[in-house]
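Consortium newsletter contribution from the modelling node. Members have asked for a concrete example of what our holo predictions look like. Here is one, prepared for the flavin-adenine dinucleotide complex that several groups have been discussing at recent meetings.
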Amino acid sequence: MHRPHRGTIHCIDARVIAQQAWPDRQFIMRLHAPDCARSATPGTFVHVRCNPDIPMRRPLSIMGANASEGWIEVLYKVVGHGLAALSRAEPGDLVNLLGPVGQGFRPDPARPQAVLLGGGVGIPPLVFLAARLPAAPAAIAFLGSESPFPFATATARLPLPGIPASAEACMPQLEALGIASRLASKAGLPGSYPGYVTDLARGWLATRSAAELAAITVYACGPTPMLRAVKELAAGFGLPSQLCVEEFMACGVGGCAGCVMPVMIDGQRQMKRVCVDGPVFDGAAIYVP
Ligand SMILES: Cc1cc2nc3c(=O)[nH]c(=O)nc-3n(C[C@H](O)[C@H](O)[C@H](O)COP(=O)(O)OP(=O)(O)OC[C@H]3O[C@@H](n4cnc5c(N)ncnc54)[C@H](O)[C@@H]3O)c2cc1C
Ligand code: FES
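And here is the predicted structure:
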């Protein structure tokens, strides 16, 4: 049997290079993990031991990887005691991780126009994907959050037709890559569209011609209700989608079947492990509850 993850998941004591705190208990952590940085691809994740006293690891998407400098970056929001412990790690500390784990996004050369949709702590794999996409044609991104964004926003310079003028804020890191972005939030964040990220995307898609739509693939990661809305949005415009899903994980490396979900493959319903067969799946092949 083909096991694409065999021999590619490393167990690493990664040294913390930097840990940056953002509002609402969000953190960006850079770790020295050269083996992981070499083979990480957008959509893959690391399974992190937050503290030697907490045996259960936490899965975190890789937000960026630099193979020549040997580092990876993660962005996380503290929910409970595991990530709270991780947030106390300081530069120089060691953090044990398994990674990179999983099958990431698979850009389709036949549909090269990428529409990226990220929600909350689902934003990191899209940032990584944006950095790895071919330079042209430029992707576009819609990012949503109910917490203040864990980056300094700026007024967008790159135009996006179909978007309300009041939605003027962007993620500067994406603009620097030539990728136009807009932000959405129901929490009244300045410059953000006061609604869902999928509504912003719908406005833009509605301005596309049939030929333009034929070149688009939608890539998304975020909370389950958002992924359900993305799946419906993509289906409504006849677009393929690739969705990065979350599931509770135990081993995180394919051994326990604790993370299985049904996936339709060639008309057959098969049980797939989110950790190593995903976490990215064809949106049309999965049921999003
Ligand atoms: C593939 C994948 C990628 C993820 N990437 C990110 C990311 O980049 N940034 C981020 O902030 N969060 C991410 N998450 C969610 C994150 O793993 C959970 O929020 C985190 O495990 C909660 O840990 P805690 O110690 O803060 O909370 P606790 O409540 O103490 O966690 C309790 C237990 O529940 C598990 N758990 C809780 N919520 C989730 C969840 N949503 N998914 C899976 N397990 C969960 C934990 O692993 C732990 O075993 C990802 C989840 C998955 C499956
Ligand atoms: S978490 Fe063990 S198989 Fe996925």
